[in-house]
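Sanity check

After download, print the first record. It should look like this:
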Amino acid sequence: MRTRRLFVAVICIASLGSPFAMHAQKRDEKSCRIEFNEPRQGSSVSGQGRASGTATFPPGKHLWIFAHIQGLALWWPQCGGPAQIDKDRWVCQVTYGQERDRGSDFEVAAVVLDDKDDTDMRNVIKGYEQKGQYPGIELPPPTEGCPVTKVIVTRK
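Expected structure tokens:
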């Protein structure tokens, strides 16, 4: 009889643990949030412009901004490195292609990277600066639990 009560108690405690675990997972997902204040979804932009927003993510992670013509597989890192964040606010200069890209739709993506991918991206930027060439790259995978945030704009 005592063994049976112990078994029932263990089952009850185990079943209570699930909602707590789910709550902790939801809290972690909410700890990573990236938003754009500008440009706004669907807005028209000039050849270069400011992108800004708010960012909350785990310590030791890095926010990178990328842009490309919608539909291309390659992306171009913006800001010259990771976006600088001050009190959960970030600002970055974005280049929307070249003159020939007028009228094109551009995606701007905010991606939270871990230390390894941040280091890799910093090396890409150094290579750009050394060679004076700026080839596109594949969008790096975001840190787990931090989905990529995108806006689509049209170049005037």
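If your output differs, re-run the checksum step. Summary of this record's structure: The chain has two domains: 1-30, 33-155.
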